[in-house]
Amino acid sequence: MIKQLYYLTGLISVMVMMHTAWSSFLLQRKTVKCVRSSFFIKIEMLFVMVSVLLIHCMEASIFAIFYYVNDALPDMETSMYFSLASYATVGYGDVLLPEGFRLTGAAEGLVGTLMVSWTVATLISYFGDKK
């Protein structure tokens, strides 16, 4: 169990650093007091939403790589499937981790929930009042 906690500390640290970098990048490019056409607003929304999906997929991929490298799951496809289902807190239950990794799998759901909440806060800040 202690070993899992060490792994989780590292994985969560990577997630926080990645999400901090993404949030900082997004909020730094926030346009202030600029009149833009609706076309450019739509392009901006597309860019932001694609970046949201990419950051979450990258974060789930870190967990998937961890599972695969540590032989918790048989192949990368299964690892990615399990990781995305856990990160999104769907957790179908058709793929299960070995006993030594269950804490990590459960914690991934918590991490996913926190990262999505952080994303919502960032999006509110980004698309909110641009005064």
TrEMBL record:
It comes from the Bacteria. InterPro entries: K_chnl_dom. Gene3D superfamilies: 1.10.287.70. Keywords: Ion channel, Ion transport, Membrane, Transmembrane, Transmembrane helix, Transport. Residues 58-127 form the Potassium channel domain. SUPFAM superfamilies: Voltage-gated potassium channels. GO terms for biological process: monoatomic ion transmembrane transport. This is Potassium channel family protein. It comes from Citrobacter meridianamericanus.
